[in-house]
């Protein structure tokens, strides 16, 4: 059975603080889970949770993955920006042009996200979390479409996007030129295999699609979690549902 996208993981110096920020921005429930630690539970059709994992490594470069949050009017956009700033966010410069309608912000640890201007047709039916927007190749879009079993909803000029058949946000990749990857991905996917599934069979399937193992590849028979990377080298984890 195809794996599912369980969570989007954020490395954080202060996971509770960053989680509280996103709980305030998104309106999602903040919880402590025995398997996942500090998490946010979606209250919409997003379908995946947010996990916040402790790290001692400071953020040193622009993330290759970020949220695009939607707005319904200019006033709504301004209110959402004001809320994010009041919760500890800040404006950040990622090279955006002054005439762009989106507002680029960072959370308390600088993880970038955009509040998109109203009237964006591409995200029109996607909800508040309109997209998880990634810097990535066309090949990586094809990989994730096959890995998750989500259809391609955009494939043009080497830009790709996929979306769950059940709705929710799109996951997009902007195509070349690609930003250099500097170190471990600070924001990354956490996949789960069904509790009755064969984890090693899923590893083999993902490798056949273009993924690689980055955890040394030992102990396959007993492993409950495997660290992997997609064709662009972006890390992700794969584990059996319910495994810590």
Automatic annotation (TrEMBL):
Domain named VOC is located at: 4-118, 125-241
What domain of life? Bacteria
A Pfam family found in this protein is Glyoxalase_6
InterPro entries from the UniProt entry: Glyas_Bleomycin-R_OHBP_Dase (IPR029068), Glyoxalase_6 (IPR041581), VOC_core (IPR037523)
Q: Which SUPFAM superfamilies match?
A: Glyoxalase/Bleomycin resistance protein/Dihydroxybiphenyl dioxygenase
PANTHER family linked to this entry? CONSERVED PROTEIN (PTHR35908:SF1), HYPOTHETICAL FUSION PROTEIN (PTHR35908)
The name this protein carries in UniProt is VOC family protein
The organism is Angustibacter luteus
Phylogenetic placement of the source organism: Bacteria, Bacillati, Actinomycetota, Actinomycetes, Kineosporiales
């Amino acid at each position: 059975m195809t794996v599912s996208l369980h969570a989007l993981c954020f490395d954080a110096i202060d996971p509770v603080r960053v989680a509280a920020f996103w709980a305030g921005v998104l309106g999602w429930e903040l919880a402590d889970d025995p398997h996942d630690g500090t998490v946010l539970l979606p209250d919409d059709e997003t379908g995946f949770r947010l996990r916040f994992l402790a790290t001692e490594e400071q953020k040193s470069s622009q993330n290759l993955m970020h949220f695009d949050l939607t707005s319904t009017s200019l006033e709504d956009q301004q209110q959402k920006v004001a809320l994010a700033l009041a919760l500890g966010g800040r404006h950040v410069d990622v090279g955006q042009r002054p005439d762009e309608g989106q507002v680029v912000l960072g959370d308390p640890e600088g993880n970038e996200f955009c509040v998109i201007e109203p009237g964006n047709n591409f995200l029109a039916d996607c909800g508040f979390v309109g997209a998880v927007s990634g810097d990535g190749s066309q090949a990586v879009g094809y990989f994730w479409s096959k890995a998750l079993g989500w259809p391609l909803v955009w494939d043009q000029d080497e830009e790709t996007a996929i979306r769950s058949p059940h709705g929710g946000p799109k996951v997009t990749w902007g195509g070349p030129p690609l930003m250099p990857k500097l170190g471990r991905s600070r924001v990354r996917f956490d996949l789960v295999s069904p509790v009755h599934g064969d984890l090693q069979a899923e590893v083999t399937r993902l490798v056949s699609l273009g993924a690689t193992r980055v955890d040394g590849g030992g102990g396959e028979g007993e492993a409950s979690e495997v660290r992997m990377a997609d064709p662009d080298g972006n890390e992700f984890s794969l584990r059996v549902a319910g495994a810590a």
